[in-house]
């Protein structure tokens, strides 16, 4: 069941630049196929993975806080492909990023991921969230509605 304090479809329509925490180099994983789909549909993807320097032809960063300021100021959404118990840690990074750069606006935990502690961190720091939802699925639903 999707948990959100912002409509997922609104996020997909309004924002175009997504930092993907847990982006994968493995083309078989959802953490690769979903960001690839989004990139192929006009979204800018900024991969975040501590073991990669490049993913999908884009520079990859070790953490949200390692994204250079000029790039960080463009991040509108943080999409997370990490286990639910890691969401609070990523939410804290997103909150620190927002304090420094005024962004991100939205934190999105991929389908199957949800964490109450992370929701509290995000709410206290003025970051909207979507949890337990797939960006690709939401986008495909929007495309079908406009077709």
Question: Can you describe what's shown?
Answer:
- α1 packs across α6 (135-146) and α4 packs parallel to α5.
- The mean pLDDT is 95.
- It is built from six helices and eight strands, in the order βαβαβββαβαβαβα.
- Helix content is 39%, strand content 19%.
- The strands form two sheets. The protein has a six-stranded mixed β-sheet, sandwiched between helices. Strands 4-5 form a two-stranded antiparallel sheet.
- It has helices at 8-14, 30-40, 69-72, 87-101, 116-124, 135-146, and strands at 3-4, 17-21, 44-48, 54-55, 58-59, 77-80, 106-109, 128-131.
- It has one domain: NAD(P)-binding Rossmann-like Domain (Rossmann fold, 3-Layer(aba) Sandwich).
- By secondary structure, it is α/β, with parallel strands linked by helices.
Judged by helices, strands and strand pairing, the structural class is: alpha/beta
CATH C-level label? Alpha Beta
The CATH topology is what? Rossmann fold
The unreliable regions are: none
Overall tally of domains:
1
| Gyration radius over CA | 14 Å
Largest sheet entry: 6 strands, mixed
Strand content: 15-25%
How many β-strand stretches? Answer: 8
Helices and strands in order:
Layout lengths: L2 E2 L3 H7 L2 E5 L8 H11 L3 E5 L5 E2 L2 E2 L9 H4 L4 E4 L6 H15 L4 E4 L6 H9 L3 E4 L3 H12 L1
Parallel strand pairs: 2-3, 2-6, 6-7, 7-8
Antiparallel strand pairs: 1-8, 4-5
Helix pairs in contact: 1-6, 4-5
What labels would you give this structure?
19% strand, 8 strands, 6 helices, Rossmann fold, alpha/beta, globular, two-stranded antiparallel sheet, 39% helix, six-stranded mixed beta sheet, 147 residues
């Amino acid at each position: 069941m999707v948990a959100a304090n912002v409509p997922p479809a609104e996020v997909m329509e309004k924002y175009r630049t997504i930092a993907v925490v847990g982006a994968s180099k493995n083309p078989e994983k959802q953490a690769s196929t979903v960001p690839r789909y989004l990139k192929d549909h006009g979204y800018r993807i900024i991969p975040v993975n501590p073991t990669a320097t490049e993913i999908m032809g884009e520079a990859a960063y070790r953490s949200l806080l390692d994204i250079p300021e000029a790039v960080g100021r463009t991040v509108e959404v943080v999409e997370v492909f990490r286990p639910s118990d890691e969401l609070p840690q990523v939410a804290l990074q997103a909150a620190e990023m927002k304090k420094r750069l005024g962004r991100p606006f939205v934190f999105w935990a991929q389908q199957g991921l949800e964490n109450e502690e992370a929701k509290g961190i995000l709410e206290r720091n003025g970051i909207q969230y979507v949890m337990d939802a797939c960006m690709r699925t939401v986008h495909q639903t929007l495309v079908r509605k406009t077709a």
